[in-house]
Design brief:
- The chain is mainly alpha-helical.
- About 70% of the residues lie in helices and about 5% in strands.
- It has one domain.
- A hairpin with a 2-residue loop joins β1 and β2.
- The longest helix has 21 residues.
- The two termini are about 15 Å apart.
Length: about 110
């Protein structure tokens, strides 16, 4: 389930150029609008965390691993707007995202074991 959620997150982000522009803007500017967006995003994220039972206990790092994977997806999606390559991967191309999604799903499955 986590693998599917993360892959769907990657696909959804890439289909939303305005969202990617806002996310890029949020990294350099903090204002009333970005605070509201942050609160909405965090609220929705925590609802998803609860639904997926990712915060099982204080010693469980699954939530941290999931946050890192989602952050990686977000960063690469934002970068792909203007940057062609990252780490030798053509992040602006569809073939690269098929590869990245497969790797993301594999990492998510590993995190659950």
């Amino acid at each position: 389930m986590l693998a599917a959620v993360l892959v769907n997150f990657a696909r959804a982000l890439r289909r939303r150029p305005l969202t990617l522009e806002i996310m890029a803007f949020e990294t350099v500017t903090r204002n009333e609008l970005t605070v509201i967006l942050e609160e909405v995003r965090e609220s929705r994220t925590m609802a998803l965390v609860a639904a997926l039972d990712l915060a099982a206990g204080p010693d469980d790092d699954l939530l941290a691993v999931t946050a890192l994977l989602a952050a990686g997806v977000s960063y690469l999606a934002v970068r792909a707007r203007k940057i062609r390559l990252f780490g030798g991967i053509e992040i602006a191309g569809e073939a690269a995202w098929v590869r990245l999604e497969a790797s993301l799903a594999a990492l998510a499955r590993t995190a659950l074991t």
